[in-house]
Every structure is written in structure tokens, then in C-alpha cells.
């Protein structure tokens, strides 16, 4: 049962919006089911919440048809210390993978093949493309797993989007953390790290992008995100989710007094605004970051951005 964390004073729907569209769009990433609910405790009204599947070894076992949840290794964050082990073990193996990627040239087919034997690179490419498209500013909340019951390759789980598709605040600083105008490619692949305090390693992603095959796969996944989160699909889902709780949000905001109902409506409209504007900025920054020609943009995305510059 989730109150939406940071999104509790904004829309109450960012996480379920993103996960629902990933599921509907045929993403290979495992998503959490949801139901919007109204909570009463001993007859007392507590307002609007989201009932969610819990991401743990049982969630993965069910999603992937694995018989024994105890044979699943799940890590969090950077994944390179004992504290990162959510279940099972494996942090030493993952640490060795990151160290190998950082110390070998993955443009070499042999080195790349070795990394591919240890992680599902398609899953990782799609995960990274998704994090960038939705403009997630809390990218350090990472969960990933492996199991010998499958192929023992590391796979990533989409998780925690309460601070994604954030409001555009009018700031002229392109290094600010929120808003669809921000260059999330540069942020996500920053050599110093991504997430809060740049505390989360980009060694693996940057090493993989040196390989032409992975780079092409990643850009293909970026194009997929353009389809999954197309403005018409996003706005239709936002309208649906908002309609489901609109009446209750009047009672919820009156009970807790943190925001007014009209403020909630304004912030939901801000989410629609992000849905409308995100594609052009995503295309613009993709072309800039990867130095793509207009012909390459047309081949990968069907077009280039309508933007010629960002101020």
C-alpha cells in the first residue's frame, strides 16, 4: 500500500502511470500491477492510495515462472557491497562484472561477448532508455536480480517513479534536476555518477555504449520508449487515472490539508504538459549526445526533433 512518496503532494499517479504504460506497450521489463484504492482504518477515512505488487524474490519468481524464490539473487543500488544484497548473494560476482567492464574495451567483440554472458544486455538497454525518457530524478533506487533457474544473467527492474516526468519550473538552468527541458542523457551517463549526489556508478552503461551493437540496441530501445510513452497514450492514461480518484481527492485534500484540491488538478495538468513536450526534448538530446545525423535520426526514430536549440 503506497501513498506515492514524493508524488503524494503532486499527482498520486506518476509511478502507476509509467509502469502501466510499460506493461501495455509490451516492454520486456517486469512491472508492478496496481489498483487505485481508498483506505479506511477502523472506519476512519485515510484517503487515496495505490495498492501495488511488492518487488522482491517472490515477485520475480512469479513473473518469470521460477519454481524456487530462494534461488534468486537480488541486489540494490550500486550492488557492490554486502549491504546491497536484498536476497540471496551475488554482490561479489556483480562487482567483478562492473570491474571487468570498466577495465576492458567492450568495443572488442570478445570482451563484449563475455559481458553478455553475465547480463541481459537487452533488458539493460531498455531499462536505461526508459529511465532517461521518463526523466527519473531518483535513478539511484535500483533493483536487479539473477537466478540459475533461468540463465543466471543480471536483469533490472523498473522501480520508483514518484519523481519522474517532473514539473517544468521555468528554471533556465539546464543542470537543474526537474523538468522535461533537462538533458537526461548527459545526467544518466555522467562519468561522476547519476542519482542523488551522483552516488550511483555509470561504469557499466558507459562501457557498454562503446560497443556499436549495444549502442544500436540502446537507440532502438529509445525509439521504443517514444512509442510506449507517446503523448496520446500518456494523456489518455492520465485522464483515466485522474478520473478514477477525482472525487476522492476532494475528500483526501480536505482531510490532510497539505495541498488544496485545485492544486492537485493543476499538478495533474502539469503532468499532461510533460507528456506533450517530452518527445521533442528527448529527440533533441538523443541527437546531440550521440552526434547523430538527420538521416540517422530518420532511420532510428522516423524524424528529428522539431527543436533546433534549447535555451
Automatic annotation (TrEMBL):
GO terms for molecular function: kinase activity. It comes from the Bacteria. Keywords: Kinase, Transferase. Pfam families: CotH. The lineage of its organism: Bacteria, Bacillati, Bacillota, Clostridia, Eubacteriales. It comes from Candidatus Aphodomorpha intestinavium. This is CotH kinase family protein.
